[in-house]
Write a structure and sequence with these properties.
Two copies of one chain form a homodimer.
Chain A (H helix, E strand, L loop, with lengths): L1 E2 L5 E8 L4 E8 L6 E3 L6 H9 L5 E3 L9 H8 L2 E5 L12 E3 L3 E4 L2 E5 L9 E5 L3 E3 L4 E2 L7 E2 L8 H12 L6 E3 L10 H11 L1
Parallel strand pairs in A: 4-5, 5-6, 6-7, 11-14
Antiparallel strand pairs in A: 1-2, 2-3, 3-4, 8-9, 9-10, 10-11, 12-13
Helix pairs in contact in A: 3-4
């Protein structure tokens, strides 16, 4: 796994040839139990690295299209699964906990429910008020710039754009880690504001 | 291949389990013939993508430890190989051209010779005065921050640090694409200055 911008944050990625970008997953290492977000399959090396870093206690899935290898990794690690309450009725896997808007998953990790995205209850997460972690709606295809899913993929374009503007209004965001595309480790808040202004 | 920060720049990467970071290669798409820098092996998908983008005319190798798959890709694409003049006598492969300090490889791509790094004549490249592309000496292990090879790996620590300071004195650098570790697409010049100040 790769060190991100903090010594307690790691990521791993997988190239997606269809879109010509990397999919990303995040690991937050905490004394009270590690958190994985939208975990892709782990290589044997990364499985071992995760074990060395303390395994996983919680797996957060931002939306029903980002289950990836969460179910399997939960079985292997014993982690509890957290998914979006608004997608509960159609979620591909059964979670142990269902998250509402503005809910603290653990201290320092807050879930925000988006509206109008590809799936009905997609979540974005804010870690310690500085690092925004997104699933599908907010993405990065050209390094350094954020974009959103095309209108044709959104269930409600107006609501989706309002959700982006709501996140852009949060103060203190410095980093944006997207599920699909390049991470923005520097000036993430500015990129988020530029995206909101462009919508 | 992944779009970088410009529509004419692409990259591909390979996770290195020993160092827990990604190795990166760069493609610059130009009407006059594309340039590859320190090319890693290409997947079948990326080989096809490269063909669609116009193949390769020039392959630049920054140092003798970064030959990677350059020789094979040169054979397949017909590209000419460019390596550092100072490593010519011990270079693992025979290049078609050997680069000196401050030499323009093609218009808009200048080679700078570093001193004191792991190998004797390592090059750094500056693309259109804004994008610094490094081989081994300047790297990024923690996202958003640059570092250099540890002293034990340098042939001359004082000269190596002087070489970093020389690059940091170039004006207009916004992006730093390292061969080993995270690219810095935003505030690359600031990160380079911070590194130089720390040495």
């Amino acid at each position: 796994m790769k060190q991100l911008h903090r010594t307690d944050l790691f990521g791993w990625s997988e190239f997606n040839p269809e879109r010509n970008l990397d999919f990303y997953s995040v690991l937050w290492v905490r004394a009270e139990g590690n958190v994985l977000i939208d975990p892709l399959p782990l290589s044997a090396h990364d499985q071992n690295h995760l074990r060395q870093l303390g395994g996983a206690k919680i797996i957060v899935i931002t939306n029903s299209d980002h289950c990836r290898d969460a179910f399997h990794i939960a079985k292997v690690t014993g982690a509890a699964l957290y998914g979006p309450e608004s997608e509960r009725s159609n979620f591909p896997i059964t979670c142990d906990h269902w998250l509402h808007d503005n809910q603290a998953i653990v201290p320092g990790l807050v879930a925000y429910q988006l509206q109008g995205s590809k799936t009905s209850g997609e979540l974005a997460l804010v870690l310690e008020q500085t690092t925004l972690i997104t699933g599908d709606l907010i993405r990065c295809h050209t390094a350094g710039k954020l974009c959103i899913l095309p209108d044709a993929k959104l269930t409600d374009s107006v609501l989706a754009k309002q959700s982006v503007k709501r996140l852009a209004n949060l103060s203190g965001i410095t980093t944006v880690l997207v599920g699909d595309g390049w991470p923005l480790f520097v000036q993430g808040g500015q990129a988020l504001n530029a995206l909101a202004d462009s919508l």
